[in-house]
Amino acid sequence: MGILYIVRPTQLVVVFLHLIGMIVASAGVAGVSVGILTALLDMDTPTGLLYVLSWCGSLVLMGLTVGAVVLTGRRGVSIPILLWLLSMATVTLPREFLPELWANWIYPWTPLQFLEKGIRSLLYVDQSMIPGSTLLALGITLALGLVLLAAGMLKPVGKKEVAQHN
């Protein structure tokens, strides 16, 4: 009986500001990363498609991070950090070069591998479009982040926390 489900108007404003901040910040991150990549690579790169893919990828990872933090508090930061650490060790090598345990159990769960596949495809395979499987995987991961964000808004609030906010 001591648990209430409360969505305060201020929570909706905060979530809206989180979403706007994620969109703007991810656009900036994508612009800087594509700018650096284009300046360093001495090849014909599809800058527009790389920007779109980088923007989607950084938005997805920010959504996952913000959703985990809103749902679980500061402890939620450990989830994206763990995924980032596992991904950084994984995406630098093709899946065939990884140990069997890593390739079969860890690699499929790292969101950065989809971004890496998309960038590799754009740069080296087909420079005309972003792979559909990459966009689908990034969309699913973004949906997961938004579900975490919504669940964080609707999580039970005890009487003690309600009294503190009133």
From TrEMBL:
Which regions span the lipid bilayer? 12-37, 49-70, 77-94, 130-151
Keywords recorded for this protein, A-Z:
Membrane, Transmembrane, Transmembrane helix
Query: Does Transmembrane count among this protein's keywords?
Result: yes
Q: Which domain of life is it from?
A: Bacteria
Q: Which organism is it from?
A: Lawsonella clevelandensis
Q: What is this protein called?
A: ABC-2 type transporter domain-containing protein
The lineage is: Bacteria, Bacillati, Actinomycetota, Actinomycetes, Mycobacteriales
